[in-house]
């Protein structure tokens, strides 16, 4: 498994936490407690950083790398989807032409309401 654990040094952030969750449907899922993680192609937040969505605060609890091939239905459920296939189809609809490659590495940001 290629997942990095919290005790390993993380590379510099590639974006800001304000860009971590931006799609209105994703914001609604986070606020409703249906989405507790976001996967991005870069690192957008540090552990302990606070994300504010519609006046509500969420703290980032874990940040680690994962490959798309490692995704399970449980991971997809963290993203607010029933299973990996539903998550995959959503991502591909947002990013037309993006290949879904099992070896592609993404950064997982897990969070919870403050």
From TrEMBL:
Xref: CDD domains: ASCH_yqfb_like (cd06552)
Domain ASCH: 28-112
Tree of life domain: Bacteria
Pfam families: ASCH (PF04266)
Entries under InterPro entries matching the protein: ASCH_domain, PUA-like_sf
Protein name: ASCH domain-containing protein
Lineage: Bacteria, Bacillati, Bacillota, Bacilli, Bacillales
